[in-house]
Write a structure and sequence with these properties.
Blueprint lengths: L1 H7 L8 H11 L5 E4 L5 E5 L8 E6 L4 E7 L5 E6 L11 E4 L4 E6 L8 H4 L9 E3 L5 H7 L5 E4 L4 E3 L3 E4 L2 H14 L7 E6 L7 H10 L3 E10 L19 E2 L10 H13 L5 E2 L9 H4 L8 E9 L6 E4 H19 L5
Parallel strand pairs: 3-12, 3-13, 13-16, 14-15
Antiparallel strand pairs: 1-2, 2-12, 4-5, 4-9, 6-7, 6-9, 7-8, 10-11, 11-17, 14-16, 16-17
Helix pairs in contact: 1-5, 5-9, 7-9
Length: about 350
């Protein structure tokens, strides 16, 4: 499954080459053209000369991760976070560094040696290090260069009742949705934009949207899912197994209400389960798309994912399939004359 390959690929913000190569290979021959830009976005174009508005579908390729920032005399590596990662999930996690996938483990002072006050708060990143088995600074320098990127070392797997676990489902699951959509028979000018650097400021989407100059935009995302013990219903944002999540508002966008209403109408008419995203924290590529040029009617459709921005996320394959189904219906509605 392409989602497995996407999840296990390394693609920290600014270093999305491996993910981009997988997507390019998957779409060769299925689209009119595959175009790159200076920042690293990959734009897959279907039916550029078909009647109807230009529709931009965006999913970001990058993931949160780490950058190597220095060496200790002992051979341990100093590092910095790239994107938003909770320090509390880092200790003892395996990582892979650089294109050679050098294995390492994020380490810290053992709890037995910590003072009482140290045990009361999470260890900060500057108190952690990456152990690659080097015995000296000189040995570490030969193995890993300054500025190399690292990702969590997590294998993708299916488990439970139709669930998957893997790293970077935010937003590799959105990329998998977009790949599926680009293989559907839709007679519209569709621009599938696999964007870069979303996790560090929605940068790729700004460049891609300016280039495409869309008349409608949709951001496809893997979003917060907190359907967990101890969290009240109203604070769960989304729940696994209840279908794609439609955004009403988030930290970067007030989605076009006519587009949201049409998505709801289609879901109800075709019995596609859906839910509203019950939270406004965070933002996605829609935050840049809707501000392009004179403004673009934009909506956000997300696949719920537990534990995003951590070593392993969990998602539902049914939610994935229902997201593809709903967005296919929406594109056919545009083809049939819907306009916001």
């Amino acid at each position: 499954m392409v989602l497995k390959r996407l999840s296990e690929a390394a693609g920290v913000s600014g270093q999305e080459q491996e993910v981009r190569a997988i997507i390019r290979a998957e779409l060769e021959g299925a689209v009119h053209s595959l175009e790159g830009d200076t920042l690293g976005n990959l734009i897959a174009v279907r039916n550029p000369h078909a009647p109807g508005p230009r529709v931009m579908l965006a999913a970001h390729m990058d993931e949160v991760g780490f950058m190597i920032s220095g060496y200790e005399r002992s051979g341990m590596l100093k590092f910095r976070k790239v994107g938003g990662i909770d320090d509390r999930v880092l200790v003892s996690k395996g990582v892979r560094i650089g294109k050679d996938r050098i294995p390492g483990v994020i380490g810290a002072k053992p709890i037995h040696l910590q003072e009482a006050r140290e045990r009361e708060t999470p260890l900060r990143t500057d108190q952690l290090f990456i152990d690659i088995g080097a015995k000296s600074k000189e040995e570490a320098e030969k193995k890993v260069a300054l500025g190399e990127f690292a990702v969590f070392d997590t294998a993708y797997a299916e488990f439970g009742a139709g669930l998957v676990k893997g790293k970077a489902l935010d937003d590799r699951i959105g990329c998998a949705v977009l790949i599926s959509l680009l293989k559907e028979e839709i007679n519209l000018p569709v621009y599938g934009c696999f964007t870069v650097q979303e996790e560090v400021g929605l940068r790729g989407a700004a460049v891609a949207a300016y280039r495409v100059n869309p008349q409608l935009g949709i951001a496809i995302e893997g979003t917060i899912c907190a359907d967990l013990p101890g969290i009240d219903e109203e604070f769960r944002v989304t729940s696994l197994g209840q279908g794609p999540a439609l955004s009403i508002a988030d930290g970067g966008t007030l989605p076009n209400r006519a587009m949201v209403n049409e998505l709801v109408r289609l879901a109800q008419a075709h019995q596609v389960p859906f839910q509203f995203r019950r939270g406004t924290a965070g933002a996605n590529d829609a935050g840049r798309i809707h501000l392009t040029r004179e403004g673009v009617p934009t909506a956000g459709v997300s696949v719920p994912c537990r534990y995003i921005h951590g070593p392993a996320s969990v998602a539902s394959l049914d939610d994935f399939r229902h997201t593809v189904r709903l967005l296919t219906l929406f594109l056919k509605s545009i083809e049939g004359g819907f306009r916001p």
